[in-house]
Fold FtsK domain-containing protein.
Amino acid sequence: MAGKNTQRGDHLSVAGPGQGFGYYTPDKHWASRLAPYAPEWAGYAAVWPVTWGLHEWLATDPGVAPWASAGMSLLGVGLTAVTWQCARARAAMTRKFATATSGITAAWMTTGTIAGPTETPLLELWALGGAGVAVSWSIYKALRRGGDGEPGEGLFEQVQLAGVKQTGSQVEPNRVTSQLQLPPGQMEVSDVQKASGRIAGWLGLGKGAVRVNEDPDNSSQATMTIVPQDVLKHPTAWPGPSAPGGSITDPLVVGVYEDTEPVQIYLPGDKDTGRNATHYAVIGMNGSGKTHGAKESWTEILTRRDVGLVLMDPSKGEQSVGFLGDTPYTVITGDKQCKKAVKRLPQLITERASQLGEWGYDQWVPEAYSEHGLPYLVIWIEEAPRVLSDAKTMTRLAQEARSAGMSLVFSLQKPSFRNMPTDVRSQLGGTWCFGVADLDDAAFVLSEDTIESGARPDRWKNRRPGCHYVEGPGISEERYTTPARTHLHSDAQLRAAVDECADIRPAMHPIDARYLDLTAPATDNPTMVAGNEGIEPTEDFESLDDIDPDEAADFDDDLVPLPDDEDVDTDVDDDQPVPEQVPALDFPGGRPPREEAVAMLRERITQLATEGRTEISVKDFPDPEETYGRGRSWISGELAKLDGTLLQRVGTDGRAALYRPRATGTDAGAQHAA
Ligand SMILES: Nc1ncnc2c1ncn2[C@@H]1O[C@H](COP(=O)(O)OP(=O)(O)OP(=O)(O)O)[C@@H](O)[C@H]1O
């Protein structure tokens, strides 16, 4: 076959000798390029108005509607069967895809005729689902016919990958998966991966719509996945905790993949499946959705029966954990407190590991809790480089914590060799990567294969908060390259779920309480109390108010190396026996019920407003344990709840949220105004 250009610039194919009369086919004109793909798009466009017409015609008369419904259902089944029958001569994939398309279209048209095509979710299903089916058809055709460019030149030739053959494909709405065979010895899968942007461009799709994964058993074979529509554009609503009352051995569900499958993260190990316990690094630029995702994870953890959670947040603790209100949890805020707590971790690890060993376990298993009361422990450290400032600390913690039934989660905005040495990185089995400014940031934590296969978290930056990739034990490697997004939720929803599981959560084990030197959290749940009874409180454990910000900053600059075990200043008398019983919270006369505590808090706000205070923060409620029977975080959560009614949030003082009393109704503001 030969070709030539016409005066109008169109490329015409000429039938060669022996092919009968020569004729011209305008194969480069845009209309002829698009013509093969017109049927699916015309069908897509026609389905809606036809259904609307049918609805107006048949469904508005109550006498006709039931007959129309039955008739259309039968017609749909019949057409689907006819499609299956007529397509028997076609390739198996074409036959299945055509039949599925007929079935889906008939079902939608029948429902649309009865209910009306403008109804939700029928309209959305047509708009997104229908377009997805049409795009999938177009891609499938493009791949099968090998493109519509120069005769004999297919997609792969056009993107400079001559020799790559498609050996099979699978088509689903909004996803085409093709198996590729590379010319052995001439090309590597990385060459195809590098061309994924060109393939996307050739198909008229966005960057990242094409991913290429190498076959681990045969480096001359690969799987190419094309996802035409970005379904993560809109977040999915949070469905609630995935396993309330379940075990931490059940996965934490923290979002959905682009094919709507749940994102599942595993923390403890499982000998049966050969999965190791793991730590995670959470990275993402500011505003990429790390805290939002963290809250979802914390809620998952706090709704399980055999896991404890310790949150360390050197800067915005009040802000990020305020939603937990007075629910039982343990949070350590402030630079200095977090650093102190981190110093205690090595001894905690040693103690937990030797206790597990005494019980005959070489790692944490659910029986450690069900038979001995030692829950799994997750230590979640926000802005980790601020408190884990030296490599030795991080490496040792990461190396040893897993065998002690602990998972560490280090959250940070930008990893670098300085704040996350390679040794540490190699100890973190899991990575949760949100949008980043630069692909190099992601490459620091995501595996090379994931990046090469087309993962592009730098495309999201912080414009698509919550979108992420996740790698970790228990997650299928194919999923590493599949984009996902955390759910859309509000603090109130999470809070309600956490509250509902108040009686399910485990008591903090005395070992954890002792070695972290945790004060007893205020709680309605008598089982969730830090076991400090019988242990002298540390003398130098400062409250947040006692920290001089300048001192904290100095501390931050003066990075303290990890002391050796014998130097660890736990401020705990090691001879002191660990209490067997979890003590009850000591509040003389019983602490006030919640309503009463809230009333007292409101009264205090009124008093402050009457005194002429224009700014109020959590610091204006000294000794909250004694006064309200609840901790600072409870105060913080209650103040946040009054935002918009009694109070108006005006910013932060760098640590805590600041509020102005509002002049409304009978509230404090009104009194102040008076
Ligand atoms: N999946 C999601 N769907 C919708 N909105 C989201 C999602 N994830 C996060 N957001 C929103 O994006 C904004 C930024 O999220 P977030 O505060 O969690 O980011 P961050 O990475 O923690 O930022 P920083 O590092 O500055 O603290 C918030 O308003 C949050 O509600």
